[in-house]
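User: Assemble these into one structure.

Assistant: Restating your components, then the assembled model:
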Amino acid sequence: MTLALFIEQLLNGIQLGMTLFLMAAGLTLIFGVMGLINLAHGSLFMIGAFVCAWVGSTTGSFWLGLMAGGLAAAATGIAMEVTIIRRLYAREHLDQVLATFALILIFSEGTRWIFGDRPLWLDIPDALAGTVELPGGIVYPLYRIAIIAIGLGLALGLQWLITKTRLGMQIRAGETDREMITALGVDIAWLYTLVFALGAALAGIAGGLVGALQSVQIGMGEPVLIIAFVVIVIGGIGSIKGALIGALLVGTVDTMGRVLLPSVFRLMTDPATANAVGAALASTSIYILMAVVLIFRPKGLFANNG
Amino acid sequence: MVKAMANIDRDTIVNAMIIALLVSLPAIAWWLGEIYYLNLASRVVILAIAGVGLNLALGLGGMVSFGHAAFFGLGGYALGMNVSTALEGAAVVTWPIAISGSASFLVCFLVALIAAGCVAAIVGVLSLRTSGVYFIMITLAFAQMIYYLAVAIPAYGGEDGLPIYERSRLPIGDLSDPATFFVLCLVFLGLSLAVFRQISRSHFGAALRMARINEKRLATSGIEPIPIKLTAFVISALITATAGMLFADLNGFVGPSMLSWKMSGEIMIFVILGGIGRLMGPVIGATAFVLLETFIGGVTDRWGLFLGLALLSVVLFAKGGLIGLLTGHDRHD
């Protein structure tokens, strides 16, 4: 494998990692602050993608679509939190898993009802449709670079929000001691709704961004959801930093595994077997990574609670 | 005391009624020649077995496994691989030694138990190092790992799955006869319920319950919680694998969908919908689930919506599950 191909795949891995981070950040924030496992986070991702594709194709503007996708996911998140999710905070994880599993079924059918069975397609915006030449003569799609940049920007923004603002202070206080922060006069119910909406918006934006790379269809959120869970378990549930590092790790391992493993096995055996074994191992590589991390650190790399 | 007596009686009556319905309704279907309903009953019974398996880990041991589809699927693949290679006269294993496939039900049963037992022991040892939400996620991740392995290996049918053209064979009785097959499923349900009941009444069961309620207290009384939980996890996987094997035999097909995380979720639904930790809970849960699926699914394609709403209301409002509603009380411990 040439160096150029290696760097290209590395960039693909980082791009995947950035989309995973947008999902994982919301999941980990919601778990860290409210102690809730939200399986329906993948549905918010799907809603973001559908609304982005629909608004994007109606108005002709991808950016308007992306904004609408994020807002729609946030609005759905608020509606969900106020009607159902807040009844689950005090419940066992088992109840949370089942109730949010039920929400997945409801959202999938609901989306099918509104948008139909056929997948939607979302075009990459014209301004980002080309490629860029990186140093070393590597030609790489501009849109994927943009995803990395947007992901990085949102990660920095989130970091700023959590560490530097008054709201972030309340969120961190809510993670540590929810009774104390209530006693200090912070409206905890409102704070919870806001955190949930924030996580939902990030998932919706991730859905819109990914929607231009693949078809927008029912059930698209579930594979991403499960990988995002792997990310936060590796990173340590509740930690934003852990989510970022876990996401980059998982994105890179997954992408590189798919490229490297078959070629490694080709050195040892015939190409057909090598491809089959390599592909099989590659698709399990992130789960093996997770198992190894948990064997040495049962609470993930950057556990701060949970 | 009097109230407790009355409740025990009501439990027994409800359980007896469930068993009576489970035997009599399919018998009527068979008598009327309604093969479709007889097969539907087999489906209910098989899924109930899967639920009884999970109920052992989840209900008694408090281990929220979100990966039981792995064992369900392993059972299915053990039968599928064996029977389909036997029909072709091919080897089911070529490395390190060649073993030809077998269409015998008993051989498949043994292979399913060994496969699921080994995998459950490994998954259990690693997963039980963690607890709470990490346990949920790691069991889910291991199941996903096996799912992707099955998808990636073409010899196992890959993404399309593996058709099984004939039922497996027993020395007595012809399993391609729907009534015989139903009776076989019923026997296995009876066995798994007996195992559950025996365990829950034994010292081991008491220790397992204590491991769920308070691990530290169990450890203080001189019993290590991890081996207790691991044993229960493996037995639970064996029961669920048996169900998976029967499921593949019933459908004449095994595919990655049996290993998918939605399957894990469904098995969990049987347990919760019926009543967690209750002997007959998974039986009622699986029955309600399949009936909802079949009858709402027959009227509208949107059955997922109704299942979702039903499930949501059970989780939010009915804490003891359906069996809690029928017997009028939540679980004892």
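Chain A touches chain B at residues 31, 37, 84, 87, 93-95, 97-99, 101-106, 108-110, 112-113, 222, 226, 229-230, 233, 237, 276, 279-280, 283-284, 287-288, 290-291, 294-295, 298-300, 306 (CB under 8 Å).
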